[in-house]
Design goal:
140 residues, mainly alpha, 2 domains, 6 helices
């Protein structure tokens, strides 16, 4: 088994909960309030990371800037995810937004020079088809 696979599985399950729990939150509080409280959760993880890293916390701007931008884009996306979760069925919202790796794959090919094989292109096509099928509501 590849060394990265265990971490990828843990991320998969954590993100599964991450995608589901907003529906419970927005049943009782606004999307904007939910984003604030979700950010508190992220700050807890940040504080734990700081405690673990201690004086070894790295600060190279070539890494810090993309990391901060990740938080900014994640926060903006998070707000719109919560807003969509409040208005629509979480199964459909989650399936549709789960297409974000398509953006990542395209950006990796364009900006990092990562090669796309025909099987990966087929995977993207099938992922888009799957999201469309998961999002389809008969009679709607």
């Amino acid at each position: 088994m590849e060394r990265w696979l265990a971490g990828a599985f843990i991320a998969l399950f954590c993100w599964g909960f991450w995608a589901f729990l907003p529906k419970l939150a927005v049943r009782h509080i606004s999307a904007l309030s939910s984003v604030f409280y979700e950010s508190v959760g992220v700050m807890v993880i940040g504080a734990v990371s700081l405690l673990i890293a201690g004086r070894n916390l790295e600060s190279d701007p070539r890494g810090v800037i993309p990391a901060v931008l990740t938080g900014i884009f994640g926060g903006i996306g998070l707000y719109f995810y919560f807003a969509a979760a409040k208005q629509g069925p979480i199964a459909v919202v989650s399936a549709f937004t789960a297409l974000y790796p398509v953006v990542t794959v395209i950006m990796a090919a364009l900006f990092l020079g990562e090669r796309l094989y025909w099987t990966q292109v087929l995977g993207i096509v099938l992922a888009v088809a799957a999201a469309c099928l998961l999002s389809y509501t008969p009679g709607a």
